[in-house]
Amino acid sequence: MTELEERIGYRFTNRALLERALNTPSVRMVDPSAKDNQRLEFLGDAVFGLLSADSVFRKNPDDQEGLLTVRRTHLVSGVALAAAAEKLELRKWLHRNVGAHEIPPHAKLLADALEAIMGAIWLDGGLESARAFFQRLELPFDEKFNEWDANPKGFLQMKAQALTPPRKPSYKVKKIEGSAHEPIVTVEVSVPTLGTVEATAISKSAAEVAAAAALLAKLQEQNDSTEHED
Question: Assuming Cys at both sites, which of 26, 85, 151, 184 could form a disulfide with 110, CB separation 3.0 to 4.6 Å?
Fold first, then answer.
């Protein structure tokens, strides 16, 4: 049993599935014939969706569909999966392009790889093996979450439109580093009277979401501080 298999708690019968799960898309820059992990990621995303839906349904018998959806989204969000991948130290085993930049925290690349591993486990061992892996991960089952966690961009827009006069969040790409296959994008979001923050992620859309969430968190901290003073 390899060290990674020990960390994820599953021994593969078909070790090639695990190896493919670790192949990021950029590995094809080294070997154009290599098969990356995107197909397994697609499958693993669906498996995570099934297991997370089953989990929040069982743990929250009084919640209606809307709140269950938010809980499920929060449980297996890109940030949550990337954090779980970090705890497994998954970045050490990823196959990438030679000279690729360092993977930043909460990178989509890590979440994608974890989904690919879930897909590989599903194919190799079936539902119960996938469920055991899911339960092994330290996902935020009981962590408190904000009402905007499922859609921070949408919630920030609602807050901006509620201002007098109504405003609209403005997103601006400040910097792009890395390769075309694995870019690191820094985005700034600004709302007059609410503030301006920057966030970094591996895609423009993910950076926009992270920036919106960061601004909402900043506003929440300011609100909590004001309430505490009162």
Answer: 85
